[in-house]
Amino acid sequence: MNYFFQIITSLSFLALFTKLSKLSSISFLLLVSVPIIYFYPFSISTLVLSLLLALTLKNLLVDKRKYLNILLFTIILTLSIFISGHKIFNEIVIENVTNSQRGEHPNYQTSITAKILHNKTTTVMYYLQNLNDRLSISTVFASGSYPNLSKHLPIGFLFPWYLLGFLLSIRTKYKDYLNFVFLSALSLLFLLTGVLTRGSADIFMFSIIWFICIESVEQIQKLPKLVTYFIFTLNLAYLSIILMSLRVFLNK
Amino acid sequence: MLQKNIKNLLVFFVIFTIAIFLRFYDLSNTPVSLTIDEIGNGYNAFSLLKTGKDEWGIKLPPYFRSTGDYDAPVMIYLMVPSVWAFGLSEFSVRFSQALLSLLITPLIFLISRKYIFRDKSIILSFAATLFYATSQWNIIFSRSGFEAIVALFFVTLNIYFLFRSIEKKNPLNFYLALVFAYIATIAYSSNKIFTPLVNLLFFIINWQSIVEIFKTEISSKKWRFILLSVIFLVLAVVFAKLWIFGPGAVRAKMVFFTGDFEFKRALLEKLDEAGLNILGLPMLIFFWIKRFLEYFSLNFYVIDGLGLTIPGHPGSGVLNMALYPLFLIGLISLLIPGKNKHFERIKIFLLGWLIIGFLPATLANNPQHALRTLNSSTPAILIATLGLSFVFDFLNKKSRKVALIFLGAFILFFCLDFVRFIDYYTVHYPYELSETRHYGWKEMAIYARDHHSEYDNVYVDPRFGSEGRTNYGVPYSYFQFYSQYDPHTFHIFPGRDKFISDFENYHFMEIDFNQMGEIKGNNLYIASPWSFPDSMINKEHIVYEVKFLNGVTAFYAITNKPADQEADIIDL
Q1: What are the phi and psi torsion angles at A88 (to 5°)?
Q2: What's the pTM?
Q3: Measured between CB atoms, which of B279, B292, B314 is closest to A244?
Q4: Do A170 and B273 touch (CB under 8 A)?
Q5: Could you read off the pLDDT of B63-110 as tens digits, one per residue?
């Protein structure tokens, strides 16, 4: 039941976005064919909030009515932090590794170098590792991180060719991307994705992924029609291959 | 003007001195222990010097059979002069790579100053040169016996002369570029893909200028053009015969990505079991895309790309952490269209150079391989420098003060992360991964050299590892290397023609005491603890013990006769 609700919610949101943004109907198909909708077991709050955050982030990038957008973004972000449970990543793991690496130094008990080099830097490295596991280009476009699928299955949250769409978006809109408010909002989402536990970080992580998806599709639909339809066919072929092999790679 | 030149020369001299220090300081001992490949290459160079033949008795081979993977020849031949000058030692084995890595430093400056950043301040070229001099990606491979750094030197020369041929409109520079491309291609497996493609990219981007040069060449020096074309054609055929279709391609075939453990075991076998073989090809394509995109992941650049620590421990990436954001900004700036036609071509070339540098590694097994992608280190540094220029200019337009604060913060962060890299390279790498550098074989080889005459036979088990006999080494090279065993005697040793590596009273074979029953004779057994029964691991039998640097026993030398002296145990 939850699964169907998830799909209906995603489709409705994306249809609304397509309508409001005056995108073509092929854009809607390009948006709603992404693997993330069908293979990721979203909780409804995560799905709704991440989509809302992505849409407001998109507004921050293009819309001139900034104050309203900032206010909207702040409200949804605060609500998301509250709902996500905001659990910070496990400090015991970090502490163990810090102590272990300090212990590898000669005279580690008195070595100031060991203390300075293996202190907060280890924590930062772990947060960066989290960020990499959740939002690296490879994760988003090629390997994903689906809790109920084998980690070896090379299926991204989005299609690999959507990366080209996103790069096109950067190429054409780089001046918009250099906007301070947008960059601050995006950095905040990245920060939360890195420092929170996986469960708590989902909303923020997926908001960035949805944003990339929307930007990418917007660029793809501007390509010649034949190319756009070809990409949609590629999407369907990719989905079919994954669906055909799905039973082999389901985690039991 | 003169004063300015002297000042520039002085800055370059300081950077060059830093590069010398980082490549040559304590070269014999850092990194710890020569690996099996280094030892094998060193002994082959020694053998060439003494006999003109490799360890298998083959005269001036075009590739080295070595331990069965047919090593590329360039590095081993370049090692001969240093073995002649310094004797067979750790230093002489590592000297040529460190020297070539050092010589790349002025080439980076020349490429930056004359071609990449020719319209910008000289400070940017100095910055790029400093980033190369202190590049952890290059330093670690310069200080150990890796063919990739040799290939990188020739590729950098190749690219420099390509640029120069366009600048001077001189075909001789172009011919020289091709010669260096040829050497680079046979110097390292990855370069069989990288070098032709990066040259092709250069030709495509600059085809008008190149056609122009050769029109003049054909009209004025027709015979030179024909003669050199024939020579290059013959060289190309020789290359294909020896290194593409011949045994020189063995290594490339061994590591091709269709044989990747993850692809075969976790994907292909499961699809086969379910009768879905038809999905093998699309899955291979998706798998390749995943491997390719992994080279743009943050962890490769800043967390553990260099593999200096065990899995799960943060370590050091291939780029300085302060450079990474600049690298990203530089990458993005490559996408942004500009008005300067020359620089637009440079941007395409830089992006292509980076991507083509990753290509060979994506076609091989193992994800995120810093060594196989070494060719990308130069464009990565140049792109990061471009990022630095982009950010500084952007801030400078807003406020000079803010730009200077950014620069100060960048320098501080850069220095701190460099110290962190040194810590990982000199403290944690030897401690956590001495096993992967085959630590312990040297110590055992030296012990055996001094004591083997006291025994009838010395048996050596090539399998070792701290958590089981997970590694299969080629220890005979260590025993030859550290006793400087006469290569000529080794060539003619009985059984050598049947690929047996035993010599004198040394026997290299798997040892399993539990299956060997009662052991007779006065023998010495050298093996990891996993090869001996508990009853033999005691002070009565152990005559020597070597521990990995993390304190786990690596090897025992055990005799079946009770020892009459205390075990000679290495203490940490």
Answers
A1: -75, 145
A2: 0.93
A3: B279
A4: no
A5: 888 777 788 899 999 999 999 999 999 999 999 999 999 999 999 999
